[in-house]
Amino acid sequence: MSIVSFIFATIKKSDYMSPDSEYTETHENKIYATLDKLGIAYQSLHHPAIMTMEEGAEIAQKLGCASCKSLFLTNKQQEYFMLLLPANKKFENKKKLAGQIGSSHLSFASEKAMENLLCTFPGAVSILGLIYDKENKVQLLIDKEILESTYIGCHPCVNTCSLKNQVGGHS
DSSP letter at 102? Predict the structure, then answer.
């Protein structure tokens, strides 16, 4: 199963993962356990904390995958969106994206919302954080270039490790 298939699959996320469960493992280990349980292959690389997109690009090159960035956004109605873009692509037109998704306005979501919904922090936002969104409050928006990639890199909700994941129906 690819990472994109997993995200779009209709699974009851709380069956696999719950940040308030009795587990004492770190969020990172919970991500690994979930991926393993679902049979999603990944390659991991531990490294010093990534603080810039340039550092992320170096890690992605080592892993042999597309470097991407995840932006956690919200609108005035407190609907939440995760936008997955190629790392080198600037997010310059919030108004255009807002129109494409039928929203009047988009801005970056708060750290509190990020922590509550995705169990992560700025600099470690990841599509894998959607595992913790038990109520499906966050809508995933993926740039076409990412969908055309064979592999992408993402964090397991910490910025000291990166995972290489297969995107879609690629072999």
Answer: T
